[in-house]
Amino acid sequence: MQFSIKRVNAILMKDWKDLLKNSYIIFTLALPLIFAAWIGRIGEGNSALSGMIINLTLVIVGAFIQAAIVAEEKEKNTLRGLMLSPATTAEILIGKSALSALMTIIIIIGSIFLAEFKIPSLPLFALTILIGLIIYIAIGTILGLLSRTVMETTIIGMPIMFILGMGSMFKTMIENEFILKIMSYLPNEQLDAIWTGLNNGEAVFTNFLILLIWIVVILALTFIIYGKRRFDN
What share of the chain is helix, strand, coil (3-state, %, to 5)? Predict the structure, then answer.
């Protein structure tokens, strides 16, 4: 079946109309901007704090909003109908992800200005954001598919928000070297390492490679879980 932009656009427009009616999602969108404005006042352009707010935006907007959008479809019993429609898996997943991606990009741009984040290399920085979007939105899709309600996504996703969004804040409290080593391979740590490396003129190829591995693994999981949800009774 040929890929249809019209089907993707129809799914996107439906999600946009639903977003305008959902005060929970609108409030969630504002949180990273509030944090960014606060960091901009106290951080004086500190790259570590600015990197944290970008990671937090990817988690809150990219993952949580995506999870809420998918879970809301399940809660309204409309997701199965969408899965059984003529739309392909790619069309549905891209259509359901488009709004989250757009909102994430807008909030990141706003956060960069509010937090006074100095972009070291625009092309490479944009590439990291694209990679981060794919990873976090895929995580959000998985959360939404595994949750029964929008509220359940918050409960399930809270540990992910702390680990991927603010994990760097708690690293000093962890003494176990094995746990610290595992944490160093997480997407947020790799993104932070790339931004720091770009600022310091260091090589970041290995970090990009690890993130690409994350993309392959997380997308494979997304398609597998989606397939099970599509054919389960």
Answer: 85, 0, 15
- DSSP annotation of 201 reads T
Structure tokens at 14: 């439906």
List Cα–Cα distances, 64 to 21, 25, 57, 122, in angstroms. Answer: 17, 9, 10, 26
Q: To which residue do tokens 């995580």 refer?
A: 139
186: left (phi over 0), alpha (psi -120 to 50) or beta: beta
pLDDT digits (tens, 9 = 90+) for 36-80: 888 777 755 555 677 788 888 898 888 988 988 888 888 877 777
Check residue 165 and report its DSSP letter: I
DSSP 20-79: HH-HHHHHHHHHHHHHHHHHHHHSTT-HHHHHHHHHHHIIIIIIIIHHHHHHHHHHTT-H
pTM to 2 decimal places: 0.88
DSSP-assigned states of every residue in 125-162? HHHHHHHHHHHHHHHHHHHHHH-SSHHHHHHHHHHHII
Tokens for 106? 């807008």
Q: Is the dihedral of CA 25, 29, 30, 32 positive or negative?
A: positive
- In degrees and rounded to multiples of 5, residue 202 shows phi and psi of -95, 160
